[in-house]
Each structure stands twice: as structure tokens, then as C-alpha cells.
Amino acid sequence: MHLSSPRARRLAAGATAVALGATIAAAAALGAAPANAASADVTDASLSWSLSNEANAGAYFGGCNFLSAGVAGNSGASAPWTATNPSPGYAASAGNVSIAYPKAAGGTSTPTFATKCQTGDGTTVRPGTTTAGVLTLAAGTGTVDAAAGTADIAWDGGFTVAFYGGLTYWSAEDPELHVAADGTGELTATASGYAASRDGGSWAPLTPRTVHLATLTDVDVTSSGITVSPDWQGVEPASATSLNKTNADWGSWPADFVDFQNETGQSSYWYTSGANDAAAKKPQPISIAYTAAEAPTPEPTEPGTPEPTTEPSEPGTPEPTTEPSEPGTPEPTTEPSEPGTPEPTTGPTTGPTTGPTTEPTTAPTTPAPSISTGGTTTFTVGDSVPLRAEGLPAASEYSIVLHSDPVVLGTVTTDADGAFATSVVIPTGTPAGAHTVAVESSDGTAVVSLAITVTADGTVVVDPIDTTTAVTTGAAVNTGGTVSGTSALPWIGLSAVGVVALGSVAFIAYRRRVTQQD
Fold first, then answer.
1. Quick check: 15 and 121 in contact, CB under 8 A?
2. What ranges make up the beta strands (E) of 125-184?
3. Taking Cα atoms as reference points, which of 496, 515, 504 lies closest to residue 348?
4. Parallel, antiparallel, or unpaired for β 446-454 and 459-462?
5. Residue among 105, 409, 148, 175 at smallest CA distance from 292
6. How far apart are alpha carbons 21 and 27 in whole angstroms?
């Protein structure tokens, strides 16, 4: 059959319509980029961390170990700090960095140089007890992609960690968080300080270097925050020469961090060197909260080739979508399926009625109320316990209350997405038994809660599921931090199918016309 005949041209055009439909469908599928659609800018990231209980504990000399905002100056010798030395010296706030001590009844207090070795309630710490000081870095900037599970956030500012009242101290500056799609991550910073020993035998500035403050596994990146416990158990740096593995929870901070601490004189305080010191030395959970401002997702555009809604009669010449059956005789815009049987003017009911740019009709789902400790379910009374909640009304204030004897642990206000991230301390005097940590509205109604059990030795165990509070949505209260979401892809799949279907219908129509005319 020669291509110059009308029948051949029509069949070729029909096949071209189907082929172009398939090509456009494939391009639509390949062009889908869910990671870009979910990527969001962050300008208000807040990182809260106690580092370790040891970093806030009472000491046998110098009063205590403590956190200080800002990068401390050179004190000139391995000796306890004074109110004027080093300079800059002790500070509870410096730029984007602040230090707060939690109170047993809820809320926090701001320490001073004179009270840095006292709890938020004014009790002087001794070896084995801790102020539970919380370091907060504010105004972090970067991007997060909850769909892909990635994050890149950086903070401007520094803090200092002093042991034995300042006999040995070091600083970390401008931390950066990186989380990969496989759930692994790292928190790095520029570390500086002084070569020192607790007996005062040496003192010299160290060369600043980048170290890992934390390595991370199974990081859950959500649209409102991240809570994660840094790697510890089983970490074994080569330079941890006195590492003790007799405790089931033995471990260490990152290898390059311990290498650096070998020079500051603090190394053995960052890994298990005794049989029962894991709880004091292991890293506390890191809690990060932010508002993810999603960039607008551009409407997908079709390839430069126009959609094959018209059939070319000659190469390069567009042919009308309706083909006259005989010269000079107008053909109806709808083609009868059989002679004498009228065909409806609307398209086939099984095919799409709109083009591929039709928006999805299903609205995004709203996360059910949930509360999470970021996957970590075992703590000790007096620890800083991270809490993150989602699915609550936006810009609403709540109290966090420990029951059964009500103790207010703090207050929070949800962000524009109905979420919050904070840390609370389970008071050291909490009796053994079952308790509930509830998020309560101003009238005392618990909107979501966690069940916890305090054991006789002071261990706090977060129950996986709490059924004590009926959530009106019917969602289970959980500790997994899972965020529900919707796919950005359904309409793309529909468009691809729709284009193929339209091409197929066009081809069938051409065959029917050819059968009638030839």
C-alpha cells in the first residue's frame, strides 16, 4: 500500500497518534520528581541537646562540669574559671546559642556563673547527679525533604564544654547536620580548645578541626522536626585505650571526636571506661524543630511537541480533527458507530474527560494527632526526654503534664503546621509505677499522651502504644514519629494513561472511517 493514498495516510496518522501518546506518557512518568516536590527551605531550625549527663554533672574538683554559650577565650592555664577569666567566659546566651536548666515542676531557669553548678530548682549537684542543662542553637538554615528523608541544616554560633570547673575545656562552632536518604546522618562542627590535663600539668592552644559531634542511624526526617539518639552502643574508636566492655550498653562517641578529646584531657569521659558509667557518658537525644516552607511545585509541562489532537493529511500540513467523508459534504463532529444509529456527542465514558493538566481531586490528608520520643524508648529519671507532636491545631498552647499526681513539665505552642518539638525532664522523685505524659489544652483535656513506666532503679520506659487517651480521630498514639502524607504522582499517572487512551481512540476512529470509505 503506497503512503500517498488517503487510506495509507490515515492509518499512518493514527499510528503516529498512538506512538506520540505513549511517548508523552513516558515523558510524564520520567519527569516526575517527588524529591523536588517535597523539598522545603528552613530558616528557623532549633537544635536542643544536653550532650551527656556527664557534661552537666557534679565534679570532685571545680564544682561541676558545665555548658557555656559562645566560644570561650584562653584562660592561660589549666585552672577553674573565675567570673572574669577566661574572657569571654561563662555565658548563658551568646548570639543564637542559649543554655537552660529544667525545673522539676516544669519550665526552666537561666543559669549564671554563680548558679551554673545548681539544678533549675537551686540544688547544688554532686558527683553522680546532673543539672540536665540543655543547649539550644536557634535560627538554623537549610533544606529538608521529608519525602526523600534528607536534611541539610547549618547553624551559626558556638558553645563550650568545661570539665572540673574549667581545668579542661573545648568549644564547638557552626554545627552542620546532614541526613542521607538511607537514614544515616552526621552532626559536625569546628572544634577548638586547649591541650590540658586535670592535674594542671599542660596548657597549649589546639589547632581547630572539623569533628563529628554525633553519627546517626535510622533518622526520621519529618516536615516539622527530627528527634534522634546518636550512635553509641558498640562504637569502638582505636584511641579509646581504656574502653570497658563489661556493661551491656558499652560504647563511645565518634572516633575523630575521641581523638580530639585525647588532646583536651577529657577523652575517658566520652566512652565507657568503667563498668557502670554508660548512662552518664552516652549521648542524650538530639531534638530539632523547624518550619518547612515548601517551595511551590511548578505545573509540569508537556514536551515541545504539540499533543496529537489533529491528524496531518500531508507531512507538515495540519489536518482538521474531523475528516470530511466526501468532498463538499460536511461531516458531523461526532461519528456514528453504526449506520443509522446516532452516537452520543460526548466522548467515551471509559476514557478521561479532561486533559493531563487536571489537578487531583483528592485533598492532602492531615496527619492524625501523634506524639513521639523519636524512637528512643528508654531513659533515666532526670534525663532530658525529647517530645515531638503532630496533627494538632496550629498556633495553640498546651501544657505537658505528668500524671497521676499532676506535675506540669512545661508548656508549648504548636507551629503553623500543628506540630511542636521540645524536651521535658521526668522528675527524679517520680515514684515507680505506671504514669502518663499528657499534652493538655487549657481546660485540662488531654489531646494526646504517652504511657510510661518508671522502674525501681529510676529507668523510664516509654510504652510503644498508649491506650489511656481516646484520640477523637481514632488514631493510635505512638512513639514512632510517623507522619502520614500523600503522593504527588497520581495525576501524572492518570495523565499518561489518558494520553495513551486518547491516542488509541483516535486510531480506532481512523480505522472506522477508512472501513466506511474504502
1. no
2. 134-145, 150-154, 158-163, 168-179
3. 504
4. antiparallel
5. 148
6. 10
Separation of alpha carbons 428 and 88, rounded Å: 34
Structure confidence at residue 373 (pLDDT):
82
267: closest CA among 278, 276, 256?
A: 256
Rounded (10°) CA dihedral 267, 271, 276, 281: 90
Q: How far apart are CA 377 and CA 125, in angstroms?
A: 26
- pLDDT at residue 36, rounded to an integer: 44
Q: How far is CA 390 from CA 53, 188, 286, 480, in A?
A: 28, 28, 18, 12
Given pLDDT bands bounded at 50, 70 and 90, which one contains residue 513?
very low
Q: Are strands 378-380 and 477-478 parallel, antiparallel or unpaired?
A: unpaired
Which residue type occupies 485?
Answer: G
Entry pTM: 0.58
Q: What stretch of H or E contains 38? A: helix 34-38
The distance in angstroms from the start CA to the end CA of the chain is 13
CB 205 within 8 A of CB 78: no
The strand pairing partners of 252, in sequence order, are 271
C-alpha 452/C-alpha 466 separation (Å) is: 9
Q: Is 101 exposed, middle or buried (0-12, 13-18, 19+ CB in 10 A)?
A: buried
Going by C-alpha positions, the residue among 165, 167, 182 that lies closest to residue 217 is 182
User: Between the CA of residue 393 and those of 399, 423, 431, 475, what are the distances in Å?
Assistant: 14, 20, 33, 15
Residue 319 in contact with residue 259, Cβ under 8 Å? no
Asked if 98 contacts 136 with a C-beta cutoff of 8 angstroms, the reply is yes
87: its cell numbers: 574572657
Taken as a whole, the chain contains a residue count of: 518
Whole-Å CA distances, 88 to 91, 118, 261, 477, 511: 8, 22, 22, 46, 86
Q: Which residues pair with 390 in a beta bridge?
A: 370
Contact 59, 165 (CB under 8 A): yes
What are 331-351's pLDDT values in tens digits? 544 454 454 444 544 444 444
The residue-averaged pLDDT of 49-58 equals 98
What distance in Å separates the CA atoms of residue 143 and residue 453, rounded to the nearest whole number? 37
Query: Which tops the pLDDT comparison, 469 or 376?
Result: 376
The per-residue DSSP string of 68-124 comes to EES-----SSSS---SSSSSS---SEETTEEEEEE-TTSSEE---TTTTTB-TTSPB
84-125 per-position pLDDT tens digit: 999 999 999 999 999 999 999 999 999 999 999 999 999 999
